[in-house]
Task: inverse folding
């Protein structure tokens, strides 16, 4: 069982952090007898689902599941909250939401999105791992070292690697998780942590010699949230005591003292209603509190202040000038035996309307941003308009939207003219399409049509250095060509071997015969084929009268073509293989494996590799080639508008990292959608 | 096209750490196309929007319905034909001007400016139409609002100073085309809002966010390069007005 915890901490990407200890992991509930409704059945149900999860992963990975699953992750039923954030996989059944929660007030925030992404990637990596080791029943011991495994071994099938590799590298840019439970390893010894870490109880029979017993949560309150807030319910204040402290403290602050009395420890006390900041003398703050009261504690990192709430009422600012570089952990402390506190880190709705406070904060920031416009426009009235016109015009030209660029330029000029005497003010948006723009557009269009040969021909003819200097793009194009060939093979196969039509259709088909045929069986078959073609290919197919002169020939023709195409396909595959066989790069090997695996399926569309065939896969290849051509021409690979978005995101990130105003801005959600 | 094009690496040896963070961000083309389409539709570039829908394979948004009317209204205001503009706005939705007294006043004042401009252009022309318009249309509104009154007084003083070569700046502002542009864009926003959509193009919010974020970051002493150019100049040699262009890029630096 002990290996479990090492897995959990590795999974959390924070192995160096304070939560290294025993039993903090995903399966803590299995060994924790105190947890009454831990569904140990989950472990076994998870094992049954492994075969499903493989195809799910393949899908999810190619459809960018990370963002799609976002919406559904909101408030989880409280039972799933038993699995803390760092290792919630224990509860992942085939269609269950992974045990990851987003506190209501952080929904839609950039930080929550980042954490969600990290979590989803981890779940995918874990599931994928599990499914590739399906020979072992999901005994707990198999998965214990799972997360480490995928980084080292190189012998699995390509797809697995693909998924694992795409998971963000957590070490590079850790995304600070939020607290999920009380930390078993960071508590006063006589405190018992129950209910998967949500409840802390001063247990035992011995009257303790120390004056108090405190516990910290597993993670500090992340500054990147802007405002962080949690609540504690006083389940029982014990026989005769009520010195209960709720607040936050830095790591390593003594746990045998009530929070608030030590330096870097801040708390609101139930016995006198005072607020304590690092010393034994408090200041009058709020009402007293006791059994069944719900106490909330929040930090506004932007303003460096902290506040408390009682039973849903805001009690005002308690502390100011908090250090923004100290990580503060939610901390509670009690003095008497039997005293029990239950935390809500966002797994459940809060008593206080913290969402409203965060909304107000966001609105204030938005107003400030709007003000930036007013200030600016006062001194430069028309520059913003011309700046936008330049940005749009340049983007359209840069990305090869030639026709749009021309239409836009005309409309801008027309607008300028209608402002009668203003012609001189307005810069003419130059979109004289140079040859390059047209060439690039043609190349892009070819790839988007799946005509890779044409794209290669164009590129070699006009920009010979590009493919030479960008071998990876060349490689991708070559792989894409193979994929396109498989696509065509598949289409033809589907036409030659149509799925049987339902009986009702079959009878209509045979009664509306339009010509005589010798073999009825064959006749039926061909009619179905016609239907198939009609459905799948529509007008295009009917355009060619030769196709319908004799369907028998047509079918033979198709089969012949299919055979030829398959032959070509294999031929090309071998060429491709020999060309890149000696390439030492892992990603090349992997991509080749993936691509060649396509040929193994008669109907790829129903296989796990179907996403590779998606038409959408052409877009990134086209964009990459376009960028490479631009760079080869000495132009910037991205348009100014794109750069503007990049800079904006990066600047807002800077403003969010220390809990500043950027924490309340989600560029994509608030400004790009 | 010469094949000997030397591809120069964009990365300079002394790249600022912030620049690296910028480069790491990969905006989605779909988002950018969305912002562009939103801009074309909301600021009234119907032909470009149509072409863009085709070339980028996008749906034309629903706001497209009003686009023709909005373009015509914009044209009328830009050309100083306020009567036509007001009629067209009322055709579209009479509520817009009824509920926004400030906007209505701004339009009427623009009309007064045009009348004054017309009647002071020749020495022997009659200023009666301007006076009548002011007393019948603007004066009653100005009576209820101090800001309107001040604007009206200022506008009327044009009658005394025109024609003139050296107007004081406050008066010269009134004759500049930028005032028409400003009013036209306010009208456009009001129409968009009346249709239940965001009044302002996301592009404008985005630019403002960019400006705000940079100012905040510099004010709080974040480690940024001295300038953050957008690269409008190098990528588009077709721009005629290199000067205005450079300024545009500098705007973001501020």
Result:
């Amino acid at each position: 069982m002990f290996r479990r915890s090492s897995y959990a901490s590795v999974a959390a990407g924070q192995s160096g952090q304070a939560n290294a200890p025993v039993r903090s992991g995903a399966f803590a509930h299995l060994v924790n007898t105190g947890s009454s409704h831990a569904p140990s059945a989950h472990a076994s149900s998870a094992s049954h689902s492994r075969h499903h999860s493989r195809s799910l992963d393949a899908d999810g990975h190619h459809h960018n599941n990370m963002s799609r699953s976002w919406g559904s992750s909101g408030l989880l039923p409280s039972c799933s909250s038993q699995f803390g954030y760092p290792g919630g996989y224990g509860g992942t059944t085939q269609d269950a939401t992974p045990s990851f929660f987003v506190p209501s007030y952080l929904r839609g925030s950039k930080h929550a999105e980042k954490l969600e992404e990290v979590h989803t990637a981890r779940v995918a990596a874990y599931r994928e791992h599990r499914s590739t080791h399906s020979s072992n029943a999901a005994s707990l011991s198999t998965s214990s070292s799972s997360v480490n495994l995928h980084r080292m071994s190189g012998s699995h099938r390509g797809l697995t690697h693909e998924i694992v590799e795409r998971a963000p590298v957590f070490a590079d840019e850790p995304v600070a998780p939020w607290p999920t439970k009380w930390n078993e390893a960071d508590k006063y010894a006589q405190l018992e942590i129950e209910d998967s870490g949500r409840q802390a109880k001063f247990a035992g029979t011995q009257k303790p010699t120390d004056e108090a017993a405190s516990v910290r949560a597993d993670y500090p309150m992340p500054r990147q949230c802007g405002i962080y807030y949690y609540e504690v319910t006083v389940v029982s204040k014990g026989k005769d005591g009520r010195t209960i402290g709720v607040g936050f403290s830095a790591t390593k602050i003594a746990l045998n003292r009530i929070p608030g009395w030590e330096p870097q420890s801040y708390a609101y006390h139930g016995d006198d209603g005072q607020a304590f900041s690092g010393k034994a003398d408090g200041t009058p703050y709020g009402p007293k509190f006791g059994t069944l009261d719900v106490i909330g504690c929040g930090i506004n990192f932007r303003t460096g202040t902290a506040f408390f709430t009682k039973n849903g009422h805001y009690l005002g600012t308690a502390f100011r000038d908090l250090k923004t570089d100290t990580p503060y952990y939610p901390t509670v402390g009690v003095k008497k035996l039997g005293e029990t506190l239950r935390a809500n880190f966002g797994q459940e709705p809060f008593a206080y309307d913290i969402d409203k406070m965060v909304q107000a904060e966001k609105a204030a920031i938005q107003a400030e941003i709007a003000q930036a416009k007013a200030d600016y426009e006062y001194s430069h009235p028309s520059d913003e308009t011309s700046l936008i016109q330049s940005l749009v015009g340049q983007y359209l030209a840069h990305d090869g939207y030639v026709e749009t660029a021309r239409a836009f330029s005309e409309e801008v000029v027309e607008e300028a003219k209608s402002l009668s005497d203003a012609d001189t003010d307005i810069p003419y948006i130059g979109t004289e399409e140079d040859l390059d723009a047209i060439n690039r557009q043609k190349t892009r269009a070819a790839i988007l049509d799946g005509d890779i040969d044409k794209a290669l021909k164009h590129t070699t003819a006009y920009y010979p250095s590009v493919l030479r200097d960008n071998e990876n793009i060349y490689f991708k194009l070559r792989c894409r060509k193979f994929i396109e060939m498989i696509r065509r093979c598949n289409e033809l196969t589907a036409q030659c071997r149509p799925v049987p039509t339902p009986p009702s259709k079959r009878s209509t088909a045979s009664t509306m015969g339009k010509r005589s045929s010798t073999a009825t069986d064959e006749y039926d078959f061909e009619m179905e084929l016609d239907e198939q073609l009609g459905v799948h290919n529509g007008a295009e197919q009917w355009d060619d009268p030769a196709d319908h002169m004799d369907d028998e020939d047509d079918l033979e023709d198709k089969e012949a073509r299919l055979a030829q195409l398959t032959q070509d396909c294999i031929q090309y595959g071998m060429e491709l293989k020999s060309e890149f066989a000696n390439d030492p790069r892992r990603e090349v090997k992997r991509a080749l494996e993936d691509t060649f695996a396509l040929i193994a399926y008669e109907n790829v569309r129903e296989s796990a590799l179907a996403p590779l065939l998606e038409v959408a896969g052409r877009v990134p290849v086209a964009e990459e080639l376009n960028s490479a051509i631009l760079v080869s021409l000495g132009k910037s690979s991205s348009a100014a508008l794109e750069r503007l978005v990049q800079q904006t995101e990066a600047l807002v990130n800077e403003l969010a990292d220390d809990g500043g105003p950027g924490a309340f801005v989600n560029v994509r959600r608030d400004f790009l959608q | 096209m010469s094949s000997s094009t030397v591809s120069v690496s964009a990365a300079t040896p002394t790249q600022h750490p912030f620049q690296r963070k910028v480069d790491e961000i990969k905006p989605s083309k779909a988002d950018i196309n969305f912002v562009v389409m939103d801009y074309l539709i909301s600021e009234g570039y119907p032909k470009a929007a149509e072409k863009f829908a085709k070339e980028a394979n996008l749906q034309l948004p629903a706001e497209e319905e009003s686009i023709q009317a909005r373009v015509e209204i914009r044209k009328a205001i830009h050309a100083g034909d306020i009567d036509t503009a007001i009629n067209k706005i009322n055709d579209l939705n009479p509520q817009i001007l009824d509920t926004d007294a400030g906007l209505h006043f701004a339009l009427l004042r623009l009309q007064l400016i045009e009348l004054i401009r017309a009647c002071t252009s020749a020495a022997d022309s009659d200023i009666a139409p301007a006076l009548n318009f002011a007393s019948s249309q603007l004066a009653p509104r100005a009576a209820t609002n101090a800001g309107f009154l001040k604007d009206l007084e200022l506008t009327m003083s044009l009658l005394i100073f025109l024609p003139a070569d050296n107007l004081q700046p406050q008066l010269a502002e009134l004759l500049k085309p930028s005032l028409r542009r400003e009013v036209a864009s306010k009208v456009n926003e009001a129409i968009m809002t009346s249709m239940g959509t965001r009044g302002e193009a996301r592009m404008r919010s985005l630019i403002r966010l960019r400006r705000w974020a940079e100012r905040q970051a510099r004010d709080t002493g974040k480690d940024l390069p001295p300038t953050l150019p957008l690269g409008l100049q190098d990528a588009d040699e077709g721009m005629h007005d290199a000067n205005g262009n450079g300024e545009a890029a500098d705007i973001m630096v501020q």
